[in-house]
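Deliverable D5.2: sample structural annotation.
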Amino acid sequence: MSEIGLTPTPLSNAKNEGSSADAQVAGLLQLLDVMPVGERQFRGIRKPGGVGRVYGGQVVAQALSAAMQTVDEARQVHSLHTYFMRPGSEDHEIDFHVEADFDGGSFSNRRVVAMQAGKAILNLVASFQIRETGFSHQMAMPDVPQPEACETFEHYYSDHKEEMPVFLKRLTLRPFPFDHRVIGVPPFCQTEPIDDIQAFWFRTKAPLVCEQSMHRTILAYASDLSVLHAAVRRHGQPVIQVASLDHAIWFHDDVHADDWLLYTTESPWAGQARGFGRGMIFDQTGRLIASVAQEGLIRPLSDIKKA
């Protein structure tokens, strides 16, 4: 169970002090490039400067990176499904064990267990496919302002300091490898219930020179940024315990994480101390490149002692 599935700790390290965009993005690439330590065994480094619980998107992305290294490079991930079991700690590296369950003519399937301190913290199943052609259709991208017409999250937060939760005030003081542009009220900043679609633009702060597999891994990392918050925002800004329970991504087409991507999220349901969010990620031309779904714990603080 990931209890920080919405708010990643920004990246920094001793070699990359300061707020250089190139350094922040280089740190992200280093974090997600897990190292082989045995046969289908991999290790993800600790996030330099990380404190407390591991951001859920990091574990998902590192597990995907491990799986990718056991699959023919001609096959790209088209879907993944994960379950969070325990919160990870920033105090330890994470080990990943990959099972190669299937390699067919067009598809490959991998299972990954993420381990920390001898205990499983996440299970991931991913499917990979060779490039093929077929029927094609997609939903239209919502009509929203282009990123160049939107203010940055940093500017929004600077103008609304009094309305921000304490954890966001801390996060805005740290370097972060993504450029985010606000559409409407950003995650965690509204005080009244909002039931319409939430949306924002994002891209890495510096250009990427990497394989398509890493672009998809970066998208997996970013996909956990706010999808569950779509359920929370339907109820204003309550004081709650939030924890990601599961997370799924479907990759529809090639990803370019250093170009502008629009992330729209909504929540069709919440109940029984759980909330469900789903999202769509479009590129700036209107291509739907990925769909996301997540269920998580959203338990009112007053009910925590009863659980």
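Annotation notes: Residues 1-7, 9-18 have pLDDT under 50 and may be disordered. The longest strand covers residues 288-300.
The annotation will be released with the project's public dataset once the embargo ends.
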